[in-house]
Specification:
Elements lengths: L4 E4 L5 H13 L4 E4 L6 H18 L2 E5 L2 H6 L4 E4 L6 H5 L7 E6 L2 H9 L4 E4 L16 H11 L6 E4 L7 H6 L4 E4 L1 H5 L3 H8 L14
Parallel strand pairs: 1-2, 1-8, 2-3, 3-4, 4-5, 5-6, 6-7, 7-8
Helix pairs in contact: 1-2
Amino acid sequence: MIPKLHYISQGNSPKEHLENIQKACSSGAELVQLQLENISDKKYLKIATTAREITGHFQTRLIINGHYKIAKEVKADGVYLGKDDSCPSIVRKHLHTWQVIGADANTLKECESNIAKEVDYIVLAPFRNEENKKALGTVLGINGYTVITEALDTETPIIGFGGIATADVKAILASGIDGIGVSDAITRDFNSIATFHQLLNASSTAEQRYTLE
C-alpha cells in the first residue's frame, strides 16, 4: 500500500538531503524519496545506506530515485523511475518481490504504458512549473489531471507532483488524483507535513485504499 503523501528530498548537498529526510521523518512523513543528482554510484550508495538507517528508525518508507540496484542493496521500500531510467518491466526482475516501483508520466499515453508494465504507482507531473527546475513536461493543472484520471480505468494509485502547496490539495483530490508528492513546500516548513496529512485525510497510519499485489 502506498501512502498519500510523498516527501521528495531536497538539499544543496547530500548531507543536507539527509538532514531534511530526518526532519521529514521526525515530522511524521510516511514515505520519503531520496533524490540525488550528479554524484557517483559509490557515493549514492553511501548516502542511501544512511537514509535507510534514518527512515528505518522512524519506520518511514524509503524510495530511491532511479538507482534500482542501490534500492535493492540497501533494502529500500522501492524505486522511482523517470523517463530516462530503466524500463519498469526489466527493473522488476532485479528487485525483491516486496519492493515497489513508481514511474513518472505526463500524458494519458504514458500512464497507460506504465500501467501495462504493472508499476505500483504513477507520479503524474508537473501540476505546475517550478522556478529553477527543469521542465517535467506540459503543465497539467487541475484540468489536465481531471482529463487523464477520468480516461484511466485503473486501480493503480496516481500521485500528483510539481509545485503543490497545501491550498491545492482539495482541488487535486477532487480531480481524481490519489495522493501527492511534495518537495519545496515541505522543505520550507516541515510542520506542513501535519497539515498535508490532515488535508489528505491521512493520519500517521492512514494508507491508500489500494492494496498492491
